[in-house]
Amino acid sequence: MKLDNAVKIYKDFLKSKGLLYTKPREIVLREAISATWHFSADELTTQMHEHGINISRATIYRTLASMKEAGILNSVDFGHGHIHYEAPKTKAQHEHISCEKCGEVCEIQVENLEKTINSAATKAKFKHIKYTIRISGLCENCQF
Ligand SMILES: [Zn+2]
Ligand SMILES: [Zn+2]
Ligand SMILES: [Zn+2]
Q1: From ligand 3's centre to the CA of 94, what distance in Å?
Q2: Which among 104, 106, 103, 107 has a CA at the least distance from the CA of 93?
């Protein structure tokens, strides 16, 4: 998603909630959209503090949650006990596999997954189909 696009969607979302597009929200949005890998709220907080950006952890958490609600971020669960975020549609459709031992995450392409799920769900007469799958295992380093 392009930044301009995300800003517009987020502004409209905030407006519909009667909230303001504040400077801290704008800064969190920029950081989140430019992140290339899945990040947890904690990781983003640490990164921003390292960059000398002084926004509280609570504000970052809340802003990320509202960006997810606005559809600007996807959340993914790697079984770490916390949520990771990623900006959607920047890459091809992919699934995640996480290592049960060290938490390492890889992106994998599962052929026809979306198509298969959609056609099965359509057969059951469902619309607006969403799905979440969690794949885990042992990564190469943890197999021995
Ligand atoms: Zn994690
Ligand atoms: Zn591992
Ligand atoms: Zn991903």
Answers
A1: 6
A2: 107
Q: What is the mean pLDDT of the chain?
A: 92
Confidence band, pLDDT 50/70/90 cuts, at residue 91: low
All domains in the chain, ordered by first residue:
3-86 (1.10.10.10), 95-142 (3.30.1490.190)
Cα-to-centroid distance, 139 and ligand 2 (Å): 4
Output the six-digit token pair for 129: 């189909």
pLDDT, residue 64, reads 96
Ligand nearest to the CA of 79: 1
3-state secondary structure 23-47: HHHHHHHHHHHHCCCCEEHHHHHHH
Once rounded to an integer, what is the mean pLDDT over residues 32-61?
Answer: 92
C-alpha to C-alpha distance for 5 and 71, rounded to whole angstroms: 12
